[in-house]
Amino acid sequence: MSLENEHILLLLDSHASRADPSIWREFQKQQVDVLTFVPHSTHLCQPLDRGVFAVFKSEMTNRFEAPSSSSSSSKRAAISDVLPQAIRTALSPSVIQKTFVCSGVLHNSSGPVLLKLHESSIDPLPSRRKRFNFYGKVITDENLLEKWENHLKMNIERKNEMDEKEKDEVKTVVDDKKKIKRRFLHVKNDDSDEEKKDNALNRAEGKRKVIRRINTDFVNFLLCRFLNFSHFIFLGQNKEKGSR
Q: Does position 8 have pLDDT exceeding 80, yes or no?
């Protein structure tokens, strides 16, 4: 029997690491159908958990007998005695078939399995999350992959728009700061110009006062000299009259 055109079914949990549609595109090309479980439902839907692992644990528990010696080597020997039979029982065809029946993978399973799951655990997408809902679906389906890729593109575009908006806001804030700084410097320059004018006026007034004081002193000096000279002449004239 040729399996060249046959599809393979792969069952996976819904871990966040699965959220990459490009990976499942490759699986689709290889004709592998990937089905994810609803979150928190692997104990009901995962075949190994429902059948093989459960039977293996049960067989090991029932067949194992604690050795009289408490040494680790005695315990390992007791485990190795019952291990082969437990593995054979757990991997028997009947157990494997029952495993897929109990997990709801086969059509002849007894009733919907997810009805046993609590409603609060089956909600895959809380409102606070913005992830694409790929839980409990065939994620290699073409329609789902297209929606998934479009969802990622929209998220990228939205993120770019938000980044551009943040850049514009930052640029606006920087421009406002520059404007405020220029206004401050302009006011400061105006103040400095007024101070320069006041200083120049004060210096001019000081010079005028100095010149006025010098002029006053010079006039007083000339006046004193003139008075002295006049007094000297007056005395000389009196002496001449007295001699006559």
A: yes
Using one digit for the tens of pLDDT, what is the confidence trace for 120-174?
455 544 444 467 888 878 888 999 999 988 988 888 888 888 877 777 777 777 7
- Helix axis angle, 72-90 to 53-63, nearest 10°: 130
Interior CA angle at 192 toward 198 and 194, to 5°?
A: 35
Extract the tokens encoding 169: 């806001």
Query: Which residues pair with residue 9 across a beta bridge?
Result: 33
Q: How far apart are CA 56 and CA 42, in angstroms?
A: 17
Average pLDDT for the chain: 75
Query: Which DSSP state fits 106?
Result: S
Q: Which long-range contacts (CB under 8 A, 24 or more apart) does 47-51 make?
A: 47/11, 47/99, 47/100, 47/102, 47/103, 47/105, 48/99, 49/103, 50/99, 50/102, 50/103, 51/95, 51/96, 51/98, 51/99, 51/100, 51/102, 51/103
At a CB cut-off of 8 Å and minimum separation 6, what does 89 contact? Answer: 55, 56, 59, 95
DSSP state of 117: S
The pTM for the full model equals 0.48
